[in-house]
Fold this protein.
Amino acid sequence: MKRKPSTEATEVWIRLMRVQGKVLGAVEHDLKKAGFPPLAWYDALLELSRAPSGELRPVELEKQMLLPQYSTSRLIDRLVEEGLAVRRECKMDKRGLFVEITEAGRDLQKRMWNSYSAAIERHIGSKLSDADAVKLSGLLDRLGCCAGAPQALAVSKETVRDAAKETSSAR
C-alpha cells in the first residue's frame, strides 16, 4: 500500500499552487499595465538570448520553458510574426529548424526586465529577506522543481553564508 501524503505535505502543496497562481497573475498584470506582452514572451526571449548563438531548436525551447509542444509552437509563431525571432533552417540537417532571437527581441526582453524585476521585488523580494529567499530556494531545490535550471541571478556568498548561520542558530 502506498503511503498517503501527510496533512502538512498536502497543505504545502495547496499553498504552493495558490501562491504560484497569485504571484504569476500579479506579475502578468504588472507587465500588461506597463504595455508589455505576456511573461511567456519574456521567458522565451530570455532563453534564446542565453543560448550561446542566440538560437535554439523548438524542442529545446520547449524543455527550457516547460511548456507543452502546441503552446511553444504558437508562442514561436507570435514571436516570429512580431519580428522578435526568426526561424532558420539547420545547415547540417535540412529538416531541422532553429529559432533565433532578433535585435528587436533582445531589445524587448531588456525593456521588459525593468517592469518584470520591479514586479519580482514588489510581489516576492519585499516580502522575504535575502536569507529567507536562499532558504526557500533550497527547499524548492529539494522538491526538484528547478534542478538544472539556470539561475536568473547569482546569489552572493555573503547571503548564503548569512542564511546558513541563521539556520544553524535556529536549531
Observations:
- The chain is about 65% helix and 5% strand.
- Helices lie at 7-33, 39-50, 58-65, 69-81, 103-123, 130-143, 157-170.
